[in-house]
Each structure stands twice: as C-alpha cells, then as structure tokens.
Amino acid sequence: MNSCTAAVLTSYKHTLELRQFPVPEPGPGEALVRVEMAGICGTDVHLADGELNIPLPVILGHETVGRIEKLGHELERDWRGESLSVGDRITWASSIVCGECYYCRQKRQPTRCVSRKAYGISYCANEAPHLRGGYAEFILLRKGSSIFRIPDAIPTEAVVGAGCALTTVLHGLERATVTLGDVVVIQGSGPVGLAACAVSLQSGASKVIVIGAPQRRLEFAREFGAHGVISVEEATTSEARRQMVFDQIGPYGADLVVECVGRPSAVPEGWELVRDGGKYLVLGQYANAGEVLMNPHTITRKQLQVIGSWGFEPRHVDAALKLLENKHWQSRFAAEVTDRYPLQQADAALQKARLGNGGKTVITP
Amino acid sequence: MNSCTAAVLTSYKHTLELRQFPVPEPGPGEALVRVEMAGICGTDVHLADGELNIPLPVILGHETVGRIEKLGHELERDWRGESLSVGDRITWASSIVCGECYYCRQKRQPTRCVSRKAYGISYCANEAPHLRGGYAEFILLRKGSSIFRIPDAIPTEAVVGAGCALTTVLHGLERATVTLGDVVVIQGSGPVGLAACAVSLQSGASKVIVIGAPQRRLEFAREFGAHGVISVEEATTSEARRQMVFDQIGPYGADLVVECVGRPSAVPEGWELVRDGGKYLVLGQYANAGEVLMNPHTITRKQLQVIGSWGFEPRHVDAALKLLENKHWQSRFAAEVTDRYPLQQADAALQKARLGNGGKTVITP
Amino acid sequence: MNSCTAAVLTSYKHTLELRQFPVPEPGPGEALVRVEMAGICGTDVHLADGELNIPLPVILGHETVGRIEKLGHELERDWRGESLSVGDRITWASSIVCGECYYCRQKRQPTRCVSRKAYGISYCANEAPHLRGGYAEFILLRKGSSIFRIPDAIPTEAVVGAGCALTTVLHGLERATVTLGDVVVIQGSGPVGLAACAVSLQSGASKVIVIGAPQRRLEFAREFGAHGVISVEEATTSEARRQMVFDQIGPYGADLVVECVGRPSAVPEGWELVRDGGKYLVLGQYANAGEVLMNPHTITRKQLQVIGSWGFEPRHVDAALKLLENKHWQSRFAAEVTDRYPLQQADAALQKARLGNGGKTVITP
Amino acid sequence: MNSCTAAVLTSYKHTLELRQFPVPEPGPGEALVRVEMAGICGTDVHLADGELNIPLPVILGHETVGRIEKLGHELERDWRGESLSVGDRITWASSIVCGECYYCRQKRQPTRCVSRKAYGISYCANEAPHLRGGYAEFILLRKGSSIFRIPDAIPTEAVVGAGCALTTVLHGLERATVTLGDVVVIQGSGPVGLAACAVSLQSGASKVIVIGAPQRRLEFAREFGAHGVISVEEATTSEARRQMVFDQIGPYGADLVVECVGRPSAVPEGWELVRDGGKYLVLGQYANAGEVLMNPHTITRKQLQVIGSWGFEPRHVDAALKLLENKHWQSRFAAEVTDRYPLQQADAALQKARLGNGGKTVITP
Description:
The structure is a homotetramer.
Chain A: E1 3-8, E2 17-22, E3 31-39, H1 42-48, E4 64-71, E5 89-92, E6 95-96, H2 102-106, E7 117-118, E8 138-141, E9 147-149, H3 156-175, E10 183-187, H4 191-202, E11 207-212, H5 215-224, E12 228-231, H6 238-249, E13 254-259, H7 266-271, E14 274-282, E15 292-294, H8 297-301, E16 305-308, H9 314-324, H10 327-335, E17 337-341, H11 346-355, E18 360-363
Parallel strand pairs in A: 10-11, 10-13, 11-12, 13-14, 14-16, 17-18
Antiparallel strand pairs in A: 1-2, 3-4, 3-8, 3-18, 4-5, 5-9, 6-7
C-alpha cells in the first residue's frame, strides 16, 4: 500500500479529477482512516462553484465515516473517552479549533475560532500529507481531531445521511431553542430542513410545517413526521406560501421559523411567517449569496429574535450520535441515502447531488 | 372650569391647532389629571409627518407628568399598590392592553396586544371624552391605566427627560441583556441612545461608545458616562465610523450594539460593529422607514442574535422610576430637558423638537 | 332543580359528609357547571388529614371536568378566546389570582399571588354560593375563572387522568427545562411522577428512569415510556437506589432529577443522583412535611441548581390540553383512571386514593 | 540562586514550617515566577485545619502575584494572547483542568473537571518541582497554566485584595445573575461577601444589604457601597436579622440572596430572606461543614432557585482584571489588604487571617 486515490477539485466549476497520493504513516496523535462512506453535502456544490474561497486544489468531503487503518502514538481514546483500536468505525468533527484565540477562550464561540480549519474544505491537497478530505480512499486525521467511535447499532448510512446537516441543526436549535408545544415552520426540505424537522419534533414541537421541493423531498419530510408540507413548485409566490402556512397554523404565525434554504430572499419571506415575539433561525446562509431588500422595522414591530448559527462543535457530533441511537430517527436518516457512487465516479456523484432531486448522494470508495 | 385647551394634530404635516374641549368628570376607575409637563418625543415628529396611520384629529403627547385633579370612584391605588389622592403627582404607562388576547395571554407579549391603545397616539380627539393626549391642560385617564405616583425626590424634569426613551430601552435591554463587562456600542445620540447609554452602564458595561450628532448631543453622551463618542458629522461614511469604533474597542467588535437611529441603513452598518456571536438590538425602527439591502449571510456567519423590541410594559415604568431614584441618573435625565414652551406654542415646540439639535423639548401648560 | 348534593370535608380526618346546597343562578361572568368527572388528587388526601390549613367545611375537588349548565351574562369566550355555550364540556384552572399584587405585577410570579384562591381548597362551603369544589353535582365558577372548552377529540378521562399533576409538571419543567438529550431521573411514580415522565420524554430526554412503587405504578411508568424503573420496595435504601440508578445511567448522575415524592428525605437522596452542574426540581413538597438534615456543601460542590415550582398558571392548562391532543399521551393519561365512584361514595373514593395502589380514582356524579 | 524558601503545611493544625527547595529551571511551556505578594484566603485556614483532604506537605497560597523570573520554551503569550517577557508582573488561575473529561467536554463544567488541580492546594511539596504554592519565594507554573499579565495601572494590592473571592463571585453571579434593579442581600462580610457587594452593585443592583461582622468589615461593606449593613454581633438571632432585613427592603424579601458565610445554618436562614420566586446563591460552602436541618417545602412553596457555584474558570480571572481597571473598585479592593508579613512570618500571617477581624492578610516574600 504505497499510494491511494482521491477526487480533487482543481479549479472551480470543473470536473473533479482523480489523483494518486502517497499513503502516509500517522504521527503522534494522528489516525489514518480508510474511508467507508463520504457524504456529498450541498455545501460541496457551492464550493465546487467557487462561492467560498478555498485553497485549491482541495479534496472535498467533510461528512465521512471510515475505519481506523493505523493509529498514531498517543491516540488512545476518542472524544467521549472511549478506547480506540485499529478497525474501529469512526466519524469526526469536520473542524479543528485553536482553543486559544479571542473567540475560543474569551467569548466561548469556538465555531468562530480565528484559525478554524475544516476537513474537505480548508486544506490544500498539494501540501503534505495531502489526504484531508473524504472523497478519497484514505484520510489522515490531525492530532487534536474530535473522533467518535460509532456504536455498532448505528448504521453508517444513518451517520452519513444525517451528515453535517444534523450537527448544524443541533447547534442552531441550541441557540434558537424549541420549547415544548411550539409550532415550527421550516423553510427548505433538503438535508438541513429534514434534520430541523427531526430535531424540532424530538424537542417537543407540537406542529411542524415544511416548505420545500421537489415532491420526493416533501415525502421525506412527511416520513420524518412533518404535520404539513407546502410545495414551492405549487405555491410559487411568497404570498401564496404565507397563506398556506396560515391556513395550517392560524393567523399569528409560528413560534419558530427555521431557514434552511440558502437563498437570501427566504429571509424576508420567513420573517412574515413568525408570530410577533417569535424566533427566526438563519441557518441556511452558509455561503454568501448576496444581499436582499429587508425592512428592519419588521424586527422591531414584530419584536423578533433573529438568530444566526455557524457550523457546529464536537459536542454536537456527540449529540447527533445520541439521537441516532433512537431507532426511529436512525432509520429516517439512513433512508435519506438514495444514491451511491464509487470514488471513480466522484464527479458524477457531485453532479447528481447538484440536481437536488433525490435524497442524499454518497461516495463509497 | 368648564372647558380647557389642547393642541391637536388635525392633518399630517400641518401646524398643531389649539382647540377647546369640555373638562370631563372622571367615571369609575378614571382619573382627571392636570398636565404639568408633556415631553415631545421624536415619534411625535414622525406622527405629525404621517409615518404611522393614526385616527386624526389626535392630541399628541405620550410622555407626561401631571397632578390628579379628580379621582373616579374605585380608583384608590396606583400600579405599585400605593394610595392615590387628589393632588398627587403622577405619570402613567402610555398604553393599555386587553389582557385577554393571544399575545397577552398565550404568548405573554403584551406589547403586541391586538387591541393595544396608546395615549397621545391612538385616540381620536373628536370622540368623547376627547382628552387622551399630553399636549393639553387636562388628560382623562381610562379605567385600567397603569398609574405611578412619583416619589417626591424625583423631579418632574427627570421623568419627562427620561420619557418613553428610558422605558423603551429598559424593555429592549431586558430582551438583549447587558452582561457584566460587556463592550457596548450605541448607534444614535437622541433620547433613546442616551437612555441606552445609561442603562448599559448601570447594568455593568465596561465600555460604552456612542455614535451620533450633533455635538451638543455627544456632549450629553459624555455626561451620561460614555467612554467614547463618534460624530457622524465628522465620520461621514460607514467605513470611517467602523474604523473609529475599532480603534476604540479593538478589531473584533462589540458584545452588544444598540440601534437607536431609526434609519434602515443603520442596521447593516451596525451588524459590522458586533463581534461574532454578539447581539444587535433593533430599537429605533419604531416607524416604518422602508427597506434596505442587507446580507443575511452576515447573520449566519457572524452567528449574531438580532433582537427586536416594541414599546414597553407598565413594569418598565416602575423600573424607570426606580432608576431615577439614583441621584446620578436623575440629574442626567433632568438635564436633558433644555427647551420649555407653553401650550399655546405647542407647534413651535414641535418644530424645535424636529430640529433635534438640542436636548428635550417639553410643553408646560 | 332547586338543590344538589356535594361531598363536604367538615373536619380533618373524618369521613366526607353528603350535604345539600341550593343550585345558584350564575351572575355576570359566572358559569354554573354540571360536574362530569372529578379527580381525586393526592393533595386531597393531605388536605383531609389537615396538613394544610383550609377553611372547613370545604367541598374538595380541584381537577374537574363538567358541562356548562348555565352561562352568566358577559361570559362569552373561554381563556383561548373560543366561544362558550351551554352544554360545552369544559375544565378550568383551579386558581384565580388578583393580577395586581407585588407578585402578580412586579415579579410576574402569579402562582405566588398574595390573594390566590383555589377551587376545592380555599372556599368555605358555609358561605354562599357554596359550590366551589369538584366533589359535587354542580360547581359555580367565579367571574375571572380561566375556563377551557375541551376539544371533542380529547376524552374526559384523559383530562382528569392528567389532572393537576400534568399542569404542575408543565410549570415545573418550564422552570427546570429539559434539554434535548438529557438523562432524567424521576423520584416518585404517582400522577406527578408519571406526568414528569411524559413531559420529559416529549421534551427530548434521551433516557428517563422512574423510582417508585408499587409495581402497578411502575408498570404505568413503563407504559409512559420510561427506559428504566426502580422499585423502592426492592431497593429499600438510598444507597441501593443510587447504585441501581448509576448502573443504568453511568457514574456521573442525571442531568435533571425531578422530585415527585413529597417526603423531605427524598431531597438529599435526590441530590446525589444529579451530575455535577445538573438540575434538581423540587416539585413534590407541596405540603409541609417537615425538615430533614441536608448538607448545603453539596449544592456548592456539585454546582447544582435546585429549583422549586408552586402550582401552575392558566397557560399551563392550555399547554396540557395541547399535549393531550397527542393520541399517544391522551391514551396514556386516560388509562391512569382506574377507579370510578359515584358521588354518594365520595368518602370511599377518597379512601381508595389514599391507598395509592392503583391508578387515579375519580368521582362521576 | 540555588535554593529558595517556602512555608509548608506539614500536618493539619500545626505551625507552618519554613523549608528550602531547589529553584528549578522552567521546562517547555513553564514559567518560573518570583512571588511578590501571596494572599491568605479563608480557605487556607480551613485547609490548615484539615477540613479538606490535601496531599501534605503542601505549600499553601492560591491567590498570588509575581514577576516572571524565567520563561520556558514555547511560552510566549498569556491567556489573553498578549506577549510575555521576563520581568512581567502576572497572576494566574489557580486551577488547571484536563479539557477532555466528561465535565470539561460533554457538560462544559470545567470547574468540576475530574482531574482538576489547584496551586497551593493539590500539589505535594515532596514531589519535584515542589514549588507549587504562593507562600514561597518562587513558584513554578505548569505548562497549560492560565497566566495573565497585569496591566500597569492595576496595583498588586488590588489583585491580591480581590483574590479568589472576586473570581469566585464572578462565577457565582454568572450562574445566579443580578438583574438591573434587583435588591440583593449578602450573608457574610468577609472577602467573598465584599466581592459579592461589588459585583452586585456593578451589575445594577438597586439596593445591597450586607449581614456580617465584625464592625471593621461592615465598614468595608459601607465603603464598597452597601446601602445597609446588619451586624450579627448586634442582631444575634435569625429572627432579629430577618426583621432588620425586612425593615430595610420591605416584607417580601430580596430578589437575590448570596450566601458567603460558610456555616450550614446560614442557608435555611437565608431562604427566609428571599422573596418568592427569587434566587439564593450558595457560594460560601466550599468546605464541608456538615449537615443542617432544612425544609424542602420552602423551596417548593417559595418557588426558589437555589444555585451552587464551585471555584472559577480562567475567564473569570480575565473578568476580574477588567473590573479592577475601574478606579473605584481598584481602590476598594486594594484597601482590603491591611496586614503584610514577610515569608519568614508566614505562620503568624495565617494566625492573623484566622482571627478574621481585619482586612486581608498577605505575605510579601
């Protein structure tokens, strides 16, 4: 085993390229992991299109499950304190933070660490040890990575199906809490929207309405437990959607609206769906998709809380795995994985994900 | 005493008109109050310009101190449970809520009561008993008004100088709390900005910077205790102001930024002054001044809490009066009252307030 | 219809006495209600034993469902704003508060209203209109009562089965919130303990352990969804119970422990079941059962939050009815009603409830 | 410089012994510090009496200021990110945590870290490098210590005068927050009580009452800004003290009561001083002083929050230093230092501190 294959984004809006890299030996605190399944996140599509500036060439893939191939010296326990061995099936938090900067220490906002780096996003594949993304046969985890041994009862599909969407939602809904009995409206029926549906219900929402498309994803939402779904293909205007929401939840609006769309225009539309004094969680605007006209008077008059949330912390991976021990959610998230591609067809996989018309697309090297 | 004078807004953008009204007898639970001092709020200028729809003709004036002339049957105690007598100097919450609607009961957001009515704003002067605003010799308080007897030690100027600005700020900063040691930036140096300065400092802010104009108001801010002031007449661009803020508080931004300006463009400018994970309170957008281009990605990326707050509740009047027992704040707020006009010159008073170049203008009938 | 029967507690520790009372006409804002089912709460047993001072003679019964027999003038809508008509099936908050005192207004703690009065507890049956408790053919609801029309889909058994236990728990767990994923231990398997199990699970607890007795009640706990139960008849010492808890949840203790026992000794035992930095909700000590030796060093060292909660507000009845729209919880709470007695056997019903060996005992006049 | 002196607690209830230790070279990440001033904390007296189990012999002293004598490799910045140089005047958090255990990671309660170790408490002086306490000429700070360079404007007396009392209070009042306008009662007038007075006032308390003794300490409380003081030497019963408190704050009790006494009996006495629905912070029970009879019914009926807090985190040292930049608090805390002893008289210093009749006793090697 001297070299391995990885799919590399070499320039924006181009096809992924298969390259060979040497398989490294893990140093102290590091782990060499054989990738079992790598999820394709909607963010990967944005990255491939150049919507965020990343150090090309990059091996994409930040929601990954693999098995430990080799363990570096001094890496004996996972984040939870459980022992780690060669052969263990693991996942890991995509980001590593410094623990020392203004945001890490003084403000306890580690997701805003000034030197945060994420696997599959922030590492240039030209720099050794190269293997820092999930679209590859192997990945080398840095010292200080937050590794989680996956309990046997949780299938790999559930972990990758939940992906970074679930951890992102767990962070977001920690900041904009669901209170028992809340009526929740979710804008978007992609993986983030579905995860928001799951976490809202599990946290005691009495009613969850999902607005999205296409039909297949709205069916997922139903299967996740949404009490109502609204198709943006059928209700094509803000006003039409608002009317359909109010028909289902009454004229005051929702206690909490979760934006999981990513288009700026969703935000002013969403504010009108919140009851006065309610909460609006801006979760989908990870990429910078530009400005939109908004009226700040709405925030004052409706007495809103508009809450942002960026990424997640290792403890949200811990929470996600705990949620996936629940058989109901386990099967729902596993069922999201609809399309599997070998590593050699990584680019086809990315194009499939771009269509957004199915469930989750994954690469199984 | 058969009739009395009031200054009436009869149509938008016209001079206030002096009219005579019969002096009513208070019914059960009502109080007839002889106005001692009526503050002119910046909102009054907006109302006179027609920026909110009100039932003209209206007697303006919603921040008022007076003495009880006659007490209706069954009105024996003020909001705090203290006894009320003819001759007592009082103030009152400007709004009355129903206590029964969805917002009052189920969501405990009484400032969003569906049938809330405010003295000096929501009552047509053509309808008996006519006297429902402060720009008048007398005002008749409805049954259910939240009346506060003013302790002797607090001068009338302090109560009117603080006005609805202080109660609005107390509500807003209850929703967007100041934590001990916080760095606070305040956009705006009008009465709301100055009150935000006072409440932030009193709540433990370690540093308060006020951005505003004109110079006289920035001097007020200094006297209120602001550690730094930035003149929008000198720093005329967003970028220049941002740089001056960062020079004073460091490159990450403030823990809390309070918007007390009222122009929509202040909001996107303000977001850039908040540190990641910080709070932004939208307090000044009471009137609807229209849309502005904003980038919701900023909320996600900076992990902000953007919080709105509308008006205030009677308990915030209680809190304001408690704060005014503090000699320091008492004298600061009293000093805000710089211009006094008799009722006959109510229109001149309103025009003076419109200039916004001094402290607070008041009418002393 | 000139007179009706009620079961009256005339002196502590004596049998309930059947008395006749005139059936009153409802005045303005009042409602005459024909009792359909009156729950016997554990508190009723304490009251009958004289553990709280009440104005004897008293018609007990504070968790009641009935149908409107006559509506007084001006009573047209229920607490939620829905219209009320003769024949409607309703329940109501057991207490009425003044809305004006220090606790109601200034501190927003209406459950501590200085003049709070509760049906079935605080009204002397010798004073007209006499009918102020549920153990009777009729009850006359005062003006200002918080009445709730019960949706047709919710059976009476579910409402009475949930009783004041569910509303008390909803208030308590609003103060000591369950966070998604929390491990919760509940001390006590009576109606309050079962309701705590339901609300904890519905709020996202990942594991709930119930400690109680007898076996029948632990079976209820299992049916409610408890992941584990511990019998105090089998584990007869604090140490044994602690060991069994730790065997099930690990050595650190629970994120939240809810005391639903009522014996003071449960509290120091319970503190040892909470993880450091966790929460302990004292919910069961409604009656004054005396002092117990406790070590306050435990609160400091374990960095606990020990939270009390007294009674509930009308909005918790609203929340309870919303929870009972959920079919799962509806059937669980309805199944708690195991023993029905006619009004003529009210005393036998109370003795049955005293045994505490079954589910809930109710009176069906 | 081959050896130095330290005062060592060799067995409980014995005089401190002066011993010589070799002066070590700092290894990577370590710092050798020349002690300038070491505070004697009340806890040191408890430790010397054997109330907590520590690994004797121990060099006491956990609130210390010194100057960097030598810097180990790779230690270039303090906790705040500021550069460190030989000669810098510094202080440091007394404890180091693992950052990896259940409490550090999963529950974010680092003060309950399972392997937390504190300078001056948890290190045996027999084990190299020996110098791990403040009662010494030198102390060697471990890699991973949270070091703070002290701004020039803050005198050493202010830092040691504030000591661990201020950081403990900052942590405690972060958990049991002071809200603007709160009435606060503080039980105890030692360093913790005085710091609680300072932080309460700085956080917006409208009235602070301190209960304590002797007279000199109550004068300190007045100088710190307490609105009222109550002497336990004059009011010798719980009932008398309660009456005096209510005379000053009215019959409902305080919004927040802070226990800074350390005797268990203070806790049930203190509960009676809190208004219903208020908060009680148990801050003084660091040592285990045994059980006391308490009635948990009080917690339920009064709807209390009883909150514990253990030690502090590095960010509380940061907050303390920020507070000490305030000239007012700086001079108040500096004035607490009333008694200075050379290291050779460390035992006499400890005995002086035991008397508790002055301000703070310090050792100035």
